[in-house]
């Protein structure tokens, strides 16, 4: 119900009111609106077919046929593969860094293991920062690479392992366990048993359930993608040299909410019964991606 209150407060309030007649009226009205929308689309298509040799009409017919295929594919996915629309919770495990308990974000798509400046300071590691490995991380936004901590102990399960860190000046990401350390310690991401196996299986730690992950971490997952291909090339003995690091992604379109394409996406999701404000927020959150926005709305 909490999910429904967020995605469709009108329907949620009607359900909580225990008024069956009002609920039926609301569902009938929404069905009528969807039927009218489909009828308008069919009428427009019929007008286009009335003069099929017109160039503009042919373009619109082609677009309508393409959109129909997309809609049918989307409906098939909703029926046969609904999991594709649900939000995927990222992989976190409990670790200790220099004796300080942390929630580590496990990301095999990240080139390097990353720790934020504030987290490194909290763990008592900032004094070991080697600033010869400074650089700039480019991607969705920009973060400064402050340097590298060459080795410090981390505890996974009951065993200690050596770990090196790239230090970012990023308040939105705390600790990311990247591919470099996953390889070094022969880690296995076992999604069947939902555990991270370390040292070829000598230690197994469970991935955290969503309820065990702090809510601020769930918001930070978007920002951690900035570091998903980060890493600094080693330039030994060069104190002032900076490395430009490409992190993938891209710049966000500031005018995303303007234009007919965005409004069409809003209208389509509203037809599914979601509130307009919730739809707009979901589309903004996923940079206009209609499928991901729908998955977020369905999955809460």
Report on the structure:
This protein is of the alpha+beta class and 300 residues long. The chain has 2 domains: 2-80 and 253-299, no CATH class; 92-246, Acid Proteases (Cathepsin D, subunit A, domain 1). Helix content is 42%, strand content 22%. The chain contains 10 helices and 11 strands. The longest helix has 31 residues, at 20-50. The chain is elongated and about 75 Å long. Belongs to the DDI1 family. One of its GO terms (biological process) is proteolysis.
**CATH superfamily label of the largest domain:** Acid Proteases
Structural class, please? alpha+beta
So what's the overall shape? Answer: elongated
Q: Radius of gyration, Cα only, in angstroms?
A: 25 Å
Q: Which CATH class of the largest domain?
A: Mainly Beta
Mean pLDDT: 78
The percent of residues in helical segments reads: 40-55%
CATH fold category name of the largest domain: Cathepsin D, subunit A, domain 1
Task: Indicate the topology.
Elements: H1 2-7, H2 9-16, H3 20-50, H4 55-80, E1 92-97, E2 100-106, E3 114-116, H5 117-122, E4 135-139, E5 141-156, E6 159-168, E7 175-177, H6 179-184, E8 188-190, E9 195-198, E10 203-206, H7 215-224, E11 243-246, H8 260-271, H9 276-285, H10 290-299
Helix pairs in contact: 8-9, 9-10
GO molecular function: aspartic-type endopeptidase activity
Biased composition (Low complexity): 227-239
Family: Belongs to the DDI1 family.
